[in-house]
């Protein structure tokens, strides 16, 4: 049987460019080359698609340096002819499946998915609607609330409308919404904790600075009430369209830094391997773990997700499970929570990749 040609797309134009590169490195090193012929296609930060550049399998974060896709003398540009479908990737030729190991806007937000749909090219992951809806945390909350799934109280503001001169008006909106401090201010359409600030009190200067920081990544900004809860994450897998979603035992990122006011920022996730560790299953009673799995599956279906997602929840001291957000293409490095959660459930990293690809290959 001929090997299926799998295009692994990585990099991209979002703030999460480098994390995508690391995720792709893990996928390319683990993919079953007896079944698949991987084709590594990088997307530069300016949006140029290239093949034959630096080999991403050599990338990691051990040196504390974030990798990027760069145009090199040996690489070739990849051009797309939408009319030719799976044969429309020049100079690559025929592609059976695309595995978009892309995080954030222009990769995880439905734009790429729409392009591949037009080309009738099978791809791993959520479709156009779920990708777009889950990329925008504002609309994710609307969909989840409509499905009866609890979410954190919050408001959405336009960062372009607020600065230090009218920050008092923003504080008034927070008070009117009944939000209690601390609050978290974050971009609605970004990931990896980029632009997230914790505001401890009704401080106009601090609030203006937080909105400005979030606004560097997205003009649409969420101000959410801080929840006294543990952050528990559940991996969801549904490789074949129409199947019932499967859920892993939920996991938890445990912060190892001293102090009780830390939150899981970019450095904790990727740049400091002493800052945190993953525990799967999370240290919770089994009935609560099952409840998290039930909520994760319900949330997955509520947004019409497919393929894979990581559902991030808050578990409060009184046992309420709230959904924080849904990542339709979660971190996919071998040490990321999503693959580690499935390994804890008996599905190895390489087999997870195979399952996802074979679920959509046709």
UniProtKB/TrEMBL annotation:
GO terms for molecular function: ATP binding; D-alanine-D-alanine ligase activity; metal ion binding. Its cofactor is Mn(2+); Mg(2+). The active site is at residues 16, 192, 336. Mg(2+) 2 binds at residues 325, 327. It is an enzyme of class 6 (ligase). ATP binds at residues 137, 184-186, 192-193, 224-231, 324-325. GO terms for biological process: cell wall organization; peptidoglycan biosynthetic process; regulation of cell shape. GO terms for cellular component: cytosol. Pathway: Cell wall biogenesis; peptidoglycan biosynthesis. It catalyses: 2 D-alanine + ATP = D-alanyl-D-alanine + ADP + phosphate + H(+). Residues 141-358 form the ATP-grasp domain. SUPFAM superfamilies: Glutathione synthetase ATP-binding domain-like, PreATP-grasp domain. Cell wall formation. Belongs to the D-alanine--D-alanine ligase family. This is D-alanine--D-alanine ligase. It comes from Bifidobacterium lemurum. The gene is ddl.
